[in-house]
Specification:
The complex is a heterodimer of chains A (640) and B (116).
Chain A: H1 10-19, H2 23-52, H3 62-97, H4 105-124, H5 140-145, H6 150-178, H7 191-223, H8 237-269, H9 277-290, H10 306-318, H11 320-334, H12 343-366, H13 368-374, H14 378-408, H15 414-440, H16 457-487, H17 526-533, E1 547-549, H18 555-573, H19 582-585, H20 593-613, E2 619-621, H21 623-639
Antiparallel strand pairs in A: 1-2
Chain B: H1 11-47, H2 52-74, H3 83-109
Helix pairs in contact in B: 1-2
The chains are: A mainly alpha (640), B mainly alpha (116).
The complex binds protoporphyrin IX containing FE and copper (II) ion (CU).
Chain lengths: 640, 116
């Protein structure tokens, strides 16, 4: 690779990333963007735990506490967990199905930049008069009342990032359905691809309700409509339904790709074919379908009535069945395998009991009469952290170690990785296990402090100590990443030695066109089959020839920037207007708001126009170049 | 990403194509005139000041027919290779109807379901 790895100026690298449409580079962008917001959300979590460490604390004021918990939840779900999973989808899925890129590379870049600008917009609220403070669920009764522009930042910021996520969802559905290599039938797709497909479908169906809900909120707060204004005949419960019709599928969007990553890890490091592949696929699809029928389990205490509660309660419990199928399949995959305890495998092993505990408390919560007791206490906090941290975050950390060589062709240090794992694992259980009891003892969630003598002191202190351990683990991970980048020890093809699926059959670093020749897929675990039967060489499905690739483009960045500007215009539009809701009608008037709004939309629409009317035909990768690259690889192999 | 693989058509193929286009065109024109007629019927019913209940029911049914015509004849859902699209639309429609039903029952009518 010496020929292509010439020194490039910093600016040319930055420009490359600003304009890239390559899924591998977009994956790195998502990893950096999501990683940044993950650190930010983690910082907010530490502030929460410091505030709650001792009774009657005034480290954060009540108002500030509300802003911090709202931003913690919103950031972690929308700006950290989902983008980090999308990073792995981008890095892995096209390689795993034998494609040269995703179906719509331009849209992929646009999705990233829209997400990024939306996230920045949301977080600028800290500096522009205060962050949103109505909780990550932003129930309308609170959100309409919340003074200042905080909730406007929430509504507009999520609207913008949500658009980016929706684009990415559409992109992955199309990619997986239409761009699989010859021979890769649906029942030969690796589980990571399957779970990505189902999660992407969930995105396509679940985000539109959120979009509608956010528009209703935006119209109420910024343009004077009355959807949620009870005095004017509105109804705040509508928000709750909309939000949870989105919200419950959203938690499956978070967990399904995690299931995918763990399925890969189990079969790689137990060195066995995944047990019960077809039942895994079936369970994944079933979970996706059921995910839409259970949203009202978040609203048992709103007064839906006994019949509705019973229906939704039973439907919710039904989801435990496909989830249970998966758990047993993973256990049987490990069973009798020759296990390698690498860092990713440690996370995967720890995931099974941790996530199962979250599932069990989920069933407890779905029991309606019991939920009247649990609802809005720390028991719920414990439940969703067990599933989200024990599932999604473990998967992100495991995936980071597993796929790091594929993305950066170096290996993260295993010793430091194991330190991170043990500290994070211990810290996680220390923090959240005891919160189940706090909830049962009656400690309400989202309240900024508690009194001395209620019996909450010790448990809260334990919880805070656990959080410190997780913070230390994260710092070690950061150190590990920096050291790995500095050392820059390159690894070659199939760095874990036991790769089974197509992505591990590629040379590292992966060529920008991925596959010189699209391979022929002869079964599940395509690469493993060729290791057993063809000396680890994939069989090409096409002759070596020119092929077409898309050009880079700066337009996605500009288009997203336009939406960012539009956001500010919409946000300040209602300030000080007498028709506006009380929350903003006594703020200073900003006459420029309308012009900013128009200017932002103009930027976006003009760049859309440029994209539509200016032909961009891409370019061809020439056969000669491919031959040169293949010869270089051959030579390298000879030298080893 | 595929190459454009253009060979000149033989006479027979050309004829076949033309015939297919002609049938397609006839389908289009028929469904289009049907849609115009349905729209006209809807307006006519309102102009005749029939019972609002009848009008509402009829308009909803006619709208459904129009939607189906639109999807199948104008947006090519009847053609081959649209299996996934059909699956997605049916699933989406199923969810949407379930959601709307829930909204009507427990938000709009507002009575807890058990109490009626
Ligand atoms: C067996 C599977 C599951 C069941 C039966 C279940 C059930 C429930 C129920 C009934 C609630 C509402 C509790 C209340 O507010 O009183 C809840 C809350 C929650 N669950 Fe689950 N759950 C399951 C899996 C998951 C998974 C896999 C995730 C995410 C990866 C998740 C994330 C959440 C979150 C974030 C909340 C709290 C939302 C909030 O009020 O802020 N759950 N769950
Ligand atoms: Cu839920």
């Amino acid at each position: 690779m010496a020929a292509t790895a010439q020194k490039r100026s910093a600016w040319s690298v930055i420009w490359d990333y600003l304009t890239t449409v390559d899924h591998k580079k977009i994956a790195i962008l998502y990893l950096m963007g999501g990683g940044f917001f993950f650190l930010l959300g983690g910082l907010e979590a530490m502030l929460i735990r410091i505030q709650l460490a001792v009774p009657n604390n005034d480290f954060l004021s009540a108002g500030m506490f509300n802003q911090v918990i709202t931003m913690h939840g919103t950031t972690m779900i929308f700006l950290a967990a989902m983008p980090l999973l999308i990073a792995f989808m981008n890095a892995v899925v096209p390689l795993q199905i034998g494609a040269r890129d995703v179906a719509f590379p331009f849209l992929n870049a646009l999705g990233f930049w829209v997400f990024f600008f939306g996230g920045v917009f949301l977080n600028l609220s800290w500096f522009l008069g205060g962050a949103p403070d109505a909780g990550w669920t932003s129930y309308a009764s609170l959100a309409i009342d919340s003074p200042g522009h905080g909730v406007d930042f929430y509504a507009l910021g999520l609207q913008i990032t949500g658009a980016g996520t929706l684009m990415t969802g559409i992109n992955f559905v199309t990619t997986i359905i239409t761009m699989r290599a010859p021979g890769m039938t649906f029942m030969r797709m690796p589980l990571m691809t399957w779970t990505t497909l189902v999660a992407a479908v969930l995105i396509v169906f679940a985000f539109p309700p959120l979009t509608i809900a956010l528009f209703l909120l935006i119209f109420d707060r910024m343009f004077g409509s009355n959807f949620f204004i009870v005095e004017a005949g509105g109804n705040t419960i509508i928000w709750e339904h909309f939000f949870w019709i989105f919200g419950h599928p959203e938690v499956y969007i978070l967990i399904l790709p995690a299931f995918g990553i763990f399925s890969e890890i189990f079969s790689i490091f137990a060195r066995k074919r995944l047990f019960g592949y077809s039942s895994m696929v079936f369970a994944t699809v079933l979970i996706g379908f059921f995910g839409f029928m259970v949203w009202a389990h978040h609203m048992f205490t709103t007064g839906l009535g006994a019949t509705a509660n019973a229906i939704f309660g039973v439907a919710t419990m039904a989801i435990a069945i496909p989830t249970g199928i998966k758990i047993f399949n993973w256990i049987l995959t490990i069973w009798g395998g020759s296990i390698k305890f690498t860092t990713p495998m440690l996370y995967a092993l720890a995931f099974i009991p941790s996530f199962t505990m979250g599932g069990v408390t989920g069933i407890m919560l779905a029991t309606v009469p019991a939920d009247y007791q649990f609802h809005d206490t720390y028991f719920v906090v414990a439940h969703f952290h067990y599933v989200i941290v024990g599932g999604t975050v473990f998967a992100i950390l495991a995936g980071l170690h597993l796929y790091w060589p594929l993305m950066f062709n170096t290996m993260l240090n295993e010793r430091l990785g194991k330190w991170t794992f043990w500290l994070f694992f211990t810290g996680f259980h220390l923090t959240f296990l005891i919160q189940h009891w706090l909830g049962l003892w009656g400690m309400p969630r989202r309240v900024f402090t508690y009194l001395d003598g209620q019996g909450y002191n010790l448990a809260n202190m334990v919880s805070t100590i656990g959080a410190v351990l997780m913070a230390v683990a994260t710092l070690i991970l950061a150190y590990n990443i920096v050291m790995t980048i500095v050392r820059n020890e390159r690894v070659g093809k199939d760095p874990w030695g036991d790769g089974r699926t197509l992505e591990w059959s590629l040379p590292l670093p992966v060529p920008y066109y991925n596959f010189a020749q699209i391979p022929l897929i002869r079964g599940l675990d395509a690469y493993q089959i060729e290791k057993e039967e063809n000396n680890g060489e994939m069989i090409p499905s096409e002759p070596l020839d020119d092929f077409h690739m898309p050009n880079n483009s700066f337009i996605p960045f500009v288009m997203s920037f336009g939406l960012f500007v539009t956001g500010f215009g919409a946000l300040y539009f209602a300030s000080g207007k007498d028709w506006a809701i009380n929350a903003v009608s006594n703020m200073p008037v900003h006459d420029w708001a309308l012009y900013v709004l128009i200017a932002g939309l103009a930027i976006t629409f003009i760049s859309m126009g440029v994209r539509s009317w200016k032909d961009d035909l891409g370019y061809y990768v020439k056969k000669e170049e491919l031959e040169r690259d293949l010869a270089a690889l051959e030579e390298e192999r000879g030298a080893n | 990403m595929a190459e454009l693989n253009q060979k000149p058509l033989t006479d027979v193929q050309l004829k076949q194509r033309k015939l297919e286009r002609k049938i397609e065109m006839r389908h289009h024109v028929t469904s289009f005139s049907l849609m115009i007629f349905l729209t006209f019927a809807a307006f006519a019913m309102v102009a005749l000041e029939l019972d609002p209940l009848i009008i509402t029911a009829a308009v909803i049914v006619m709208a459904l027919v129009q939607v189906i015509l639109q999807f199948y004849y104008f947006m090519h859902m009847k053609d081959k290779g649209h299996g996934f699209i059909r699956l997605f639309m049916l699933v989406g429609m199923y969810f949407a109807i379930a959601f709307v039903l829930c909204y009507v029952l427990i938000v709009w009518i507002g009575l807890p379901i058990g109490s009626v």
